[in-house]
Specification:
With 342 residues, this protein is mainly α. It has a domain of 124 residues. The chain is built from 18 helices and two strands. Helix 9 packs parallel to helix 11, helix 13 runs antiparallel to helix 14 and helix 16 crosses helix 18. The two termini are 39 Å apart.
Length: 342
């Protein structure tokens, strides 16, 4: 009898999945339309130009962000340009040769050096050697918080003490008190994986979210703390509740941005992962709809060398789970709940 009931439940679940999965495709771009770390309309031309060995577009882009104090965009663009230069740096070499004191070129150079040092077996030693490059980038424009985000990443890798890290943090927030990248760097330092604890990490993230300006992605910072907690393994009921509250707050933040907006894409990718891990399938599916075609390397590279593949697999799993929980037939006169159909 028990075996029969288990078989019946399995058959019903399969029937639900077959019936509803096609409807749940609505609002989701097809697999071949999803792009990993797609550049926005400003960064794209700079990357194309860099691929040709030309630096002028990148120089113009970063100069604009510096002159107009677009610190969030500046940080994103510096990281993407440095990532590109990691494999093809002829354009950056030409830029530094032409204008060796350019604050934008020096910032990309420092970020690139940090990335390369992190990958070295002698990471701490290599990172210490990059200190002067960060100092040069910081001297380029005293208003710029981005070199201090680089310095915070550098400090984590060189085993900086808490007091040394706090000094860097003060310099960062003095320049931009709600800078997202600096907050992420601080959160990583305070995580259990590095020099803090899950509680310390969560406390910092929740206080930062409370203090953040409306519309700031810093308000979603607790979901990053939730992610590190999930990586830690078994959860207590108190920890699970805290993770769910962080996810709820991130859902609210996500809702403040348009669907398919590339700026909150990484937060939405992270949120979709956390919701899926908490088996909040309908909420996770809604985030995948809001993500649209903008898959991001983080958090998926934490688990695989194929982040896009992991993104698509997780999206499919979420869609199937939602479909399998839906009734075979809707009651007359009732519309399906939001999050089930487009």
């Amino acid at each position: 009898m028990v075996r029969t009931m288990s078989l019946l439940r399995a058959l019903i679940s399969t029937a639900r999945t077959v019936r509803h999965t096609p409807q749940l495709v609505a609002g989701l771009p097809p697999d071949d339309a999803v792009l990993l770390d797609a550049p926005d309309e400003r960064l794209g031309p700079a990357l194309v130009s860099a691929a040709l060995g030309e630096y002028e577009q990148a120089a113009k882009l970063l100069a604009t962000t510096r002159e107009s104090a677009e610190w969030e965009n500046r940080d994103r663009y510096v990281m993407r340009l440095a990532a590109f230069a990691h494999g093809r740096d002829a354009w950056l070499t030409a830029w530094l040769r032409a204008t060796p004191r350019d604050p934008d070129a020096l910032l990309v150079k420092a970020e690139l050096a940090i990335r390369r040092a992190w990958e070295s077996p002698a990471r701490a030693e290599r990172l210490r050697e990059t200190g002067p490059l960060i100092d040069a980038a910081a001297d380029g424009d005293p208003r710029d918080p981005v070199p201090w985000r680089v310095a915070l990443d550098h400090a984590r890798g060189t085993h900086a003490t808490h007091s040394a890290f706090e000094s860097l943090w003060e310099q960062a927030i003095r320049r931009s008190s709600h800078h997202y990248g600096c907050h992420v760097a601080a959160l990583q330092y305070l995580s259990a994986q590095w020099y803090g604890s899950h509680r310390e990490c969560f406390d910092f993230a929740e206080q930062a979210a409370y203090d953040a300006l409306p519309g700031s992605l810093v308000r979603a910072l607790p979901v990053r703390a939730a992610f590190t907690q999930l990586l830690g393994g078994e959860l207590t009921s108190v920890q699970a509740d805290r993770i769910d509250r962080a996810a709820d707050l991130a859902i609210t933040v996500s809702a403040e941005y348009a669907a398919g907006d590339p700026w909150p894409a990484e937060v939405r990718n992270l949120l979709a992962y956390v919701l899926a891990e908490r088996e909040r399938w309908s909420a996770a599916l809604e985030q995948f709809r809001l993500i649209g075609p903008y898959a991001t390397s983080f958090p998926w590279t934490c688990f695989t060398d194929d982040p896009l593949g992991r993104f698509l697999e997780t999206r499919d799993r979420v869609r199937i789970q939602v479909a399998s929980a839906m009734p075979l037939r809707n009651r007359p006169g009732r519309r399906p709940p939001r999050g089930h159909y487009a």
